[in-house]
Structures are given as C-alpha cells and as structure tokens.
Design brief:
about 280 residues, alpha+beta, 9-stranded mixed β-sheet, 6-stranded antiparallel β-sheet, 8 helices, 15 strands, globular, binds 4'-deoxy-4'-aminopyridoxal-5'-phosphate
C-alpha cells in the first residue's frame, strides 16, 4: 500500500507528495521537524515531540499555522489513514514557498506528515554494538542555530556521517565548540563508568532527545545511579559502557570509539538492562 502523505490539509500518494522548488525549506534548510515512533498503534511521547516542534519553531521565528492540539490530531489522523501499527512519523514544518531571497516574510508555512518505517542500523549491531569515530565536524555554537533546535539544516551532521562511513563506521561522535562531547549525528550519547550512568546536559550543545529523557526516567526508576555530566573524549575512551539513544536508533550499544575498545568490547550489563526496559516501556 502506498503511503498517504499529508500536506497542508490534503493527502497525497508518495509519488505525488511534492513541495515547491521555491520552498525555503528546500532552498535554505529553513524549517523544523520531528521524527516520532508509533509503537503498538500509539504515537510514542506524542506531546513531548509536539512541544519540541513548537519550541524549535519559536526559536526560528516560524509561526506554525495551527495549535499544538490541532497538530496532534493531524498526526493521529495520518497514522490512522495509513493504518500504521508500528512505524515512524516524519513531521516537517517548512517556512514554505517565497521568493529567491532569504527573507521569509512572503513565505506561507507548509506542514507535512509522512508515515513510514525507519531502520538506522542493521539489526545484528543491536547485539554486537556499534563502532564509532569522533568527527572533525562540531555541533553548532549555541549562538549559531542552537543545537536544541531541530531544524531542517543537518549539514554538519551529514558531513560527520560521511566522515564516519568513510572510516568504515556507521556513526560519529560530535563535540561542541568547547571540545566537549555533545552527541552523535542523530542520537544522544550515554556512558557508564563505575556503575554511574552519565550523559551531557542540554547546554552541552545537544538536541534534548525524547528518547534520552525516557531512558533517564527508566534508569532513575530502576535505581541506576545517574547524572548529567560534562564529558570529554577521555571520559568516553575509559568508559565501561556506552550507548546511543534516539527515535530512529532506539537504544544501541557502542563497543569501540576511535579504535579503542570500551570495557569488555561487548554490550555492557547496564546497557542491556536499559535496552530491555526500553523495549518493554515503549509498548507499556
Ligand atoms: N540528536 C540529534 C542531532 C538528533 O537528530 C536526534 C534524533 N531526533 C537525537 C539526538 C535523538 O532525539 P530523539 O530521542 O528525540 O529522537
């Protein structure tokens, strides 16, 4: 069955779902988005994603032409229209079509809801763990577009991803402008050292992941010691365990960083525990 894609109030088949070449999302990466999972017919952490979308839009002075509850209804309807039980939603709000200058004042925002599937890494790596490198591309300085904005401009992350795949890895750690560890190209990063779970704080130049926050909740409920902490590459190299979280990635172990084997070189016990709690939790 072809996907039914919602654009500004109408459904289109995948091949007919199009935006203008004058759209500033296309021309300038001017817009915001969310990636959201559907588990067992329910939109996972729906409100959290919609809140982040509206916060990203506010930060880039983009007025979304509907209220958050209306947006949630549009998303629910699109999931039903596509009869999706397990899948992935890509919600995009572009600045819309204007003229060829960057001034957005003539643009009319375009809202797009794509309901489809996603798989970021091969299934076997969820058992064996990923190997990653540290990218030479950093996350944006907070006074450039803040990394907390989930904008349509992912070029730094794309370049980090290219760097990773050229090095034979599927993922890359991105540092912030101070040289501290921020996150990976589309995932947040956690380490475990001496039984303590750690992840960089939101002001480390990360996107504050919905999955990150869910995993922190799971860890706290399970009594796993946790703290937000500034991390350097050294902390990562000497970690006992490391894993990544994200809507697309879910929870996946990292067993090698810049050719250093972490801990035992296998998925660690706390990672395993959190993966199990995650898998059960998303369908609870
Ligand atoms: N960081 C970046 C840069 C991302 O693109 C994503 C994916 N949205 C994440 C972290 C993880 O966020 P979430 O758990 O909300 O998907």
């Amino acid at each position: 069955m072809s996907n039914k894609i919602w654009i500004n109030g109408k459904y289109f088949d995948k091949l007919d779902a199009k935006v203008s070449v004058y759209d500033h999302g296309f021309l300038y990466g001017d817009g915001v988005f969310e990636g959201i999972r559907i588990y067992s017919g329910k939109v996972f952490k729906h409100k959290e994603h919609i809140d982040r979308l509206y916060e990203s839009a506010k930060a880039i002075a983009l007025t979304i032409p509907m209220s958050p509850p209306e947006m949630m209804q549009v998303v629910e309807n699109a999931v039903a229209e596509n009869k999706k039980v397990d899948g992935y939603i890509r919600l995009v709000v572009s600045r819309g079509a204007g003229n060829l200058g960057i001034d957005p004042r003539r643009c009319e925002p375009v809202v797009i809801v794509i309901v489809d599937d996603i798989s970021l890494y091969p299934a076997e790596l969820y058992e064996s763990g990923l190997e990653v490198i540290t990218s030479s591309y950093i996350r944006n300085h907070p006074n450039a577009t803040n990394p907390r904005v989930k904008s349509l401009n992912y070029l730094n992350n794309v370049l980090a991803k290219i760097e990773a795949t050229r090095a034979g890895c599927l993922e890359a750690i991105m540092l912030n402008h101070k040289g501290e560890v921020a996150e990976c190209t589309a995932d947040n990063l956690f380490i475990v050292k001496n039984g303590v779970l750690k992840t960089p704080p939101p002001d480390a130049g990360i996107l504050e992941g919905v999955t990150r926050n869910f995993v922190i909740d799971l860890a706290e409920k399970a009594g796993i010691p946790f703290k937000e902490a500034t991390l350097t590459r050294h902390d990562v190299y000497i970690a006992d365990e490391m894993f990544l979280t994200g809507t697309g990635a879910e929870v996946i172990a990292v067993t090698k960083v810049d050719e250093r084997v972490l801990g035992t070189g296998k998925q660690g016990p706390i990672t395993k525990r959190l993966r199990e709690l995650f898998t059960a939790g998303v369908r609870a």
